[in-house]
Amino acid sequence: MPGKRKKRRSHDAPGNHKRPKVEQQTLIQHDLLRRYYTQIFTLREYIIDKLPIRSKNNGKKRWIDEKFDRGEVAKTFTEFLDSTYIGVTQTEELSQGYILEQWDIFAQKFGHQKSNKFHCKRRQQNEIVDFSIWLLFSKKNSSIGIGQHLLVQGYRKSSEFYSCNRQENDNYSIPGLTSIYPNSYVNSMKASPWPQILAKLDGYGEKIMLDLIIRCGIFRPVANSPCNLYQASGFPLDQAYHIQSTESKQEMSTSVSPKQEFRTPSSIRLIRNRLMYARPELNSKGDIRLGFRHTHFFNRYSIARESGEDVSRIGQDSSYILMFIFPRQFGLHNIFSSGRDNSQSIQSCCHDKIREKEIKDKFPSQNSIKIPKRLRGKPIALTERMLALHKKCSYRKLVEYYCPASTYKDANFKYFDSNTKEMINKSIEPTNTLSENATHERSLDEHATPVALVSSFCCAVLDNVIPPNFWGTTELQIRNRRTFYRNVDQFVKRRRYETLSLHEALQGLQIKNIEWLGSSTYNQKLCQSDYSKRSDLFQEFIYFIFDSILIPLIRTNFYVTESNLHRNQIFYFRHDVWRLITEPTMSSLKINLFKEIPPQQARKMLSSCALGYSQIRLLPKEQGFRPIMNLKGRMRKAGSRLVLGRSINSMLAPIHNVLTLEKKTRPDLLGGALFSVGDIFTKLDRFKSGLKCSEPFYFAKVDVQAAFDTIPQAAIFRLISTILREDKYTIGRHAEIKLGNNSENAAFNPTKKWVANAHFPGDIATFAEKLNSSIAQRKKNTIFVENMTHKNFDRSELLLLLSQHLRYNMVKIGDSYYQQVNGIPQGSVISSTLCNYFYADIESTVFSFLRPEESLLLRLIDDFLLITTNASHAKRFIQTMHEGLPSYGVSVNPRKTLVNFQITINKDEILRSEKSTFPYCGCLINTKTLDILWDSAKNKNTVANSITIEYTRSPGKMFQQKLLNAFKLYTHPMFYDQVHNSLFTILQNTFNALEETALKMHAYISGFSLNKRPSTELIIQALEVLFHNAEKIISRRSRGNKFRRKSDDGGDPKKVHEFHIRKGSVEWLAITAFHQVLMKKPTGFTSVITWLESRMQILYSRRGRALEKTIAQVKIH
């Protein structure tokens, strides 16, 4: 007889059973979410994990087996369970026991009665959400940042927070809280299907739902792009430090602060952009000071210890220098373990003035300074020796020796020859560039000091200032110095966006036998702790040399800038040379564009105008300069030398967002404006498809001189006043989070971007609806987080902001303030939009004779292109533009005008293009068929200057991705559209794109030293991936084109854009392009060339006949 079944104990509950293990394969492997949460589940998996094994009526099995009601509603419910992501963190800030305890108190105090009936579940879900908001506002949880949780946005505490009685109806307010503005997150968490989920969870629903809402992050897929997510509840992902610890996933907590992170040398980048655009320092006579600035700590401190004094009794100045070199040892702000204070600096490093204030605050007296044991003795002596060497160093002689300006000197010791002086005298014109009429002027980059000489100068200064014993003794000293100077050379020679990590700066340096790092004897074996401490000290020392000696040295002696022509290459101009070649241009700007403001009036204007002032710099062109106003920079607040204010562009964001909204809703007001080069295709294709007969095309291109500097301020203000049609606008913000380019390396954090969008007051669309319709389009693997804090702006408020920007734009040049009296500020976030609206008004009034059925007028900022079948209209357009439009301030540069027909203006024949293609904005437009080709010849001489080499610990790993990214740059759909372009054009564009990619690959590899270049196997592997995916990349970009043309048969418009060139043809083009490039410079690529030739033979043997048409069509250079 079988035994009786053991009766289940009545007190069985979810907490009395061990949670079942969720299989590893059921976890969501979402890379981006895994950076912030310890566990990622679908909603179904989360519920299964939370339900006890012996839940009532075997509910756990029911959730696993999907045994729900059938029908369309059930299908939607199931999809919701499987598409909703739940992020879980291990946090003790709000324990589950505490939450349930407070839930009972809340229910009793405010009249909640538990009920399991289904018709009450909606009310119960509402109460759970309201309780969650109430709990996050309680005093106990004020330390975790209640303002950060998405559900509490829009609520504020009232005085009756703990004593309020709630109403017995569904439209109650949360006890003690006031709603300032609606919160869509709260509404969505109360809406279907959450009440249905609560009902199906039976008696375990409250516990699971409370834990889900308060302790977890909830994410939903965007409807039209499931690869994107938006956050529906939880602590916002854009406030990542509340829920992430980058060092260890086991330590994740909502209270983790980024200031607690420890940075390794490989993650510390030496901030090379600090080299750029430095102002010279002048002495009392007005001459340029060389060496270091007078505010540099080398010049502020001196040797305090008298000769023969005991080492332990050092002076205050010597101890201060030690704090600058080794701030981490004194517990000061440092690059290794400290965060960044955005209110004082935009850099990770610590400014000298901020450092001094920090030292004085922490060590108010000399007696409070305690020197760490490792820094006593030899480190003190070497530090004082370094100060003594600095006092003896003749920086001017070193500059003159290593970076001479003798090639520019004349009898008066001015750094120019007679031809250069003549060029400068001709340059004083009422325009924003130097004269381009002279035929004998020297290129501006010839005035720059060669980078090799700059590197030699820096190494010479370091060799004279840094005591040799800092590097060790005997052979170790020689080897370390040679290695370090080689690293300095790399730092100086790298391109604009290339960085040098501290790990690279330490490469090759040996620290074991450096005496000042420790007390152990020579060649003695070191324990791990001793070696680690030595490494910490030496890392701080090396960072100090780059950050506090090398960078200030370059800034004080050279003006470092990029060029408009050379892209990423940077140039080093001696400050005295730069001052002389820019002084005429700056004088011209002060006369024609600005007026000087007396100091007292300037202070008054700055106090009354919120926008503040900007600074101006000159960007070298081929034969002149372009003034650039830095409106992105954050200036110091008035009355404070340390605290940074907001940038002008950030304050102009509201008017920029509103103009962007008006631009999207009424694009017809912008005429032929192009917002990117890709817009050429959209307009050109529509024009071509609308032509009724095949007539010859007349092309005319003109360039407006000094476009931004000649727009009348009053006219543009009146025009924008008519464009802003609403009395009120609302601006909302959201965050976009996605993985960076180095997503395979956990050390790299995801990138975050905060985007603001304006909308009309009557727009009631939810954030999810806006994602579906516009925001998430063309986005991939991105998480969106909405900020519920919306701001309203009156039309009058926006116009006042615009008026201040136009009429009271202040610029600081040297120590003087100037006000812009002509034109609009260049470099502003709204400058291009204002320019587009202004020239669109010219288009609609002056050129109203152009009919859209026969003419197309394109305009990219100030570059006009007219394509028409009417010859008289083309001539009238050229005649009108060359005569000028004084009321609009428009005049053109005759030397930049280009046509494809014969025309004479004022007895001067306009430059005519005899070719079959017409150049415009980096493209070539066929003058007979309007096919669009990529202008490959334009960039061939600047390929080496256009790349940015990724110098990482494993540079080969990034090589393949760099190669694919280089090819993707040339795969815009306009080059491969089979309806607009002919087969020859498509094949030629494909070959040109692959040839440019090959040139970039060769330049990229050549940029590495021989021992760090990618191996032949890695190059071949990367090429195989490119050859295999090239056709797919082009096809994907063509199908994803935002411009949709209807097919003739009414079919899918996507099919019209498909790329129909065979994969074998694309591979042949790729092999030919790479073989042609590498054969010109075969050194180091012999094996790769052999592999390409063998692959070509195999491909031709398999698909020879199919390739004959491709070979015949393509023009190989």
Helix-strand layout with pairing:
Elements: H1 31-34, E1 39-42, H2 43-50, H3 59-65, H4 72-83, E2 85-88, H5 96-109, H6 121-136, E3 155-157, E4 177-179, H7 184-190, H8 194-200, H9 205-215, E5 216-222, E6 225-233, E7 269-270, H10 297-300, H11 316-325, H12 352-362, H13 378-392, H14 395-402, H15 418-426, H16 451-465, H17 474-493, E8 500-501, H18 502-506, H19 528-557, E9 558-562, E10 570-574, H20 575-592, E11 594-597, H21 599-608, E12 613-620, E13 625-630, H22 648-651, H23 653-665, H24 679-690, E14 698-703, H25 707-710, H26 713-723, E15 728-738, E16 751-759, H27 767-775, E17 783-794, H28 795-807, E18 810-813, E19 816-820, H29 831-845, E20 855-860, E21 863-868, H30 871-883, E22 898-899, E23 904-905, E24 908-909, E25 917-920, E26 923-926, E27 932-934, H31 943-946, H32 955-968, H33 983-1006, H34 1016-1039, H35 1053-1056, H36 1063-1080, H37 1086-1113
Parallel strand pairs: 6-17, 12-18
Antiparallel strand pairs: 1-2, 2-5, 3-4, 5-6, 7-8, 9-10, 11-19, 12-13, 14-21, 14-22, 15-16, 15-17, 18-19, 20-21, 23-24, 25-26, 26-27
